[in-house]
Amino acid sequence: MAGYEPPPFRDGSSGRSGSTDLHTDLYALLHVSRDASDDELKRAYRQLASVYHPDKYPFPQMQDVAKDHFQRIRSAYEVLSDPAKRQVYDLYGIEGVVSGMELGPHLRTRQEIREEWERAQRRREELKAAMRTQHSSSMLLSVTAADALASGFQRFPRITGMHMSTQVQAALSDKDTLVLGGSMLMRRVAGGGSMVAVFRRQMDAYQTAELVAVVGIRTQLTLSTARQVSPSVKATAGVTWHADDGSLSLANSWTSQITESTAASINIGLGADGGAGVGWHTQKDKNNFNAELKVGAGLSSGGLTATFVRRFSEHSSGRIHGRLGTTGADVEVGGSRKISDNSSLGFFVTMGLQGTLWKVRYSRGGQKVTVPILLSPTLRPAISVPAILIPSVTYAVLKHWVFSRWKQIREARQDREVRQKSAKQVWESMAEARQLQDMMTPVVTRRVTALQQRQNGNALMIISAKYGRLGGAGGEGERESRNESTNSGNGSGSGGSGSGSGGGSGGREGEGRRAASGIGSMFERIGGLLRRGLGGIGGGGGGGEEGVGGSENEGWDEDEWEEGEGGGERVVLPPAVWDVRIPLQFLVDDASNTLQLHEGVSKKGIMGFCDPAPGLPKKLRVGYSYRGEEREVTVNDLDALSLPLPSRSPS
Predict the structure, then answer these.
(1) Strand runs labelled E in 504-628
(2) Predicted model pTM
């Protein structure tokens, strides 16, 4: 192996044009599938080598550029054509190939190993401690607005009650858990509180035991146990001692899993709070239904309750709850929606014999705040109907005009921050892709002309092709696509734009030249001439806008200028989409008059493509004409694409 030089792979940060960074997909570079045969690899290599061989370019500067790209193609072919290297690449990527060509691996020192081990230990201990302790709390704040509504808002709504509870759960060992909590209740001028301690032990894989002590308004001690009797049946039994009168009460419940989505339960209690009840629970897809019928020893403890929950999406759900008992009847209607990864907001309307009220609920992690607002102490249609309509209409308006727009702005801001961090890298990759497209242009011109003649004008022609943030958050990609269309006329000639990759005019020209990695004015003029030579190909004589070579990868909008950190050098955001008509037309197979993009291969690695939005999802939108019919198709980055599409069936 003496004298062997490994392929010029890099980490993507050096900025050296023509070298293959560690994130380049070699299959995409050669435009082959991941299970391509040796013959397919050789055919793809020869096709690309015929375009980028340095001997095909008369000017020294273009020869240097072609040499770099040719070296990339040859390096990719050397890796994929060697079975051993290809296996390493499929498993570990380019990093594995490069490390296998080094003289020896980098060995860490004893100090580095010790420091890494200590950091890992600290992270494990912190994670273990966080998982062993869990905290949750809730607050209910009762508000009445009935007097305010009755007086025409001459009086203010007032707080009539409050209930707060909190608890901390800590794992003492693998089998033992301790829960400490407390609650406080205040209503008008009266109030009280209690403290709760729970000790839970996992007896074995099927049985748990629990001891609960409550001190406060109702001091009591409860001992209970739960056991998994069979795979589908669970039983619970408990005894409670009441300190007020020294009485005992017993409780027993059985739960059976009838089907995968349905469960039933039976509850029996003896004592002061005795009674019997049956329950039913069903959960299918997006629907959840619960019902319970209870008959108690006292007149105030019996009734029927039912709850139906419908999950509309991953972020929102609706809820209907009904209660019919000896103390009255009411219906609650509302819904909740996630407003972030850890928080949700809900709104409910309750109507019953005891009046009409609104209920607002906010939860974040283990914390919950509920605010019931009494609108009327009696059931009055004049209050109940607006109580339902006002929040419904308000939510619809806010969702359409505020929430959706706020979400778009937030996602667009996040996309923008990601793109700002990679702006320099993207400009360099666009300059490199522009070079590749310039080299493809004369080849595509000859091939399209010959293909049109053989197909009698029915050749597969790529009319438009965009790759990047199409239909992204806030329409960012679409907006920039329109900006490119507006500015594309500035780049059709040799002097229309600053640099081939994204230059503008005036002050932006220097930035474009830096992004183009030193491409000289000679190369720019030649690239402009090549692009103008393709102006009439796309639609059989159309202008540059419809032609294969009428590239829109030039110019940018003034809105993309932003101040850098500290008000220093300005940062120019590159377009979020990239025009890829030329490379896609280059990939059209002359023999079959088709275009095939392989599944599972990122399109950003195709010669003439680039990644205009690193770290963000991208799509490819292609408009083409075939046998007099124009079609358009959009696919995700890793999806396969086969053109032409099947013909539309006659209606």
Answers:
(1) 561-562, 571-572, 577-579, 595-597, 619-626
(2) 0.57
